[in-house]
Amino acid sequence: MISPHPKIVNKSDNIDFLYSLAYYQLSIINCLIYWHCFNRAIMNIKPSQKKARLGSLGDQVYEHLRNAIIRSGLPPGHKLVELEIAAQMGTSQGPVREALQRLEHEGLVERRARSATFVTNVSTHEVYELFYIRSVIEGFAISRTAQHISSEQCDELQMLVEKMADAGAQSDILTLAEHDMQFHRMICEWSGSTALLRAWLPLSSQIQRFVVQSHPWHYPNLIEVGRRHQPIIDALRNHDVENAPQLLKDHIMLIWSEINPTPYSSGATPIE
């Protein structure tokens, strides 16, 4: 039943109510517009781009841990805990797990019982074996590369030698070692043999770790390290398929004439 005396509504209250309703509706519209734009942005990202963004976190963790191991910041036997690394790097455990798997493939870490992961401890005789295997792989690779290498590619190698010299002059062993390994990787890549490159890649990180950690004793003259690559470039420029493999093998194994290891003895000491 309708009351004969309707309630009198204050006009100012009615206006306030209308303003509040309009503001609320406008907020909803803004949210809908933002959500629509956000969804369009997500849909426009290609699957490959999504993987790249996710993978970049794993790459960052990998590079951080790899450099720490190579520099001895993470010494042999050091336990790597996924949760701790994730907290330090500000990421989830997924990228950390991916990085550890890559490092394990390269021989820098190893998984033990119950998924515990530790930095590996490599002995001198094991490093000798790695160098020897590397010399054989690169010997095959350079024999193929020397047949078709261009002068422009030789110039790229020459630039790397110059970068090695610059890094050596600044006593920057980590950068020097990176340029050094890039020099040898290019020779393997330009061979056109994916099998040789796949065999070479797992060796590179352990060899780089040895070079960085042992350079005060075995590589005292860092500038000379770059210069030792020059005969290899000269042979490649001349397409000297016959002599290039032996030059490269001698270059790789030169350090062991100074160390004079006994690679198969049981008393070999680990790298520290």
Largest sheet: 3 strands, antiparallel
The strand count comes to 3
Q: H/E element string?
A: HHEHHEEHHHHHHH
Question: How far from one another are the termini?
Answer: 96 Å
Pick out the low-confidence regions: 1-9, 29-54, 262-272
Strand content: under 5%
What sort of overall outline do the alpha carbons produce when their principal axes are compared? globular
Spatial arrangement of strands, main beta sheet = 1-3-2
Number of helices: 11
Which class best fits the helix and strand makeup?
Answer: mainly alpha
Protein architecture, described:
The chain has 272 residues and is an all-alpha fold. 72% of the residues lie in helices and 3% in strands. The chain has 11 helices and 3 strands, in the order H-H-E-H-H-E-E-H-H-H-H-H-H-H. It has a 3-stranded antiparallel β-sheet. A hairpin with a 5-residue loop joins strand 2 and strand 3. Helix 5 packs across helix 8. The longest helix has 34 residues. The relative contact order is 0.11.
In summary, what is this structure?
The protein is mostly helical and 272 residues long. It is built from 11 helices and 3 strands; from the N terminus they run ααβααββααααααα.
Task: Itemize the secondary structure elements and their pairings.
Elements: H1 11-44, H2 47-70, E1 79-80, H3 82-89, H4 93-105, E2 109-111, E3 117-119, H5 124-148, H6 151-169, H7 173-190, H8 194-218, H9 222-227, H10 230-237, H11 244-259
Antiparallel strand pairs: 1-3, 2-3
Helix pairs in contact: 2-4, 3-4, 5-7, 5-8, 5-11, 6-7, 6-10, 7-8, 10-11
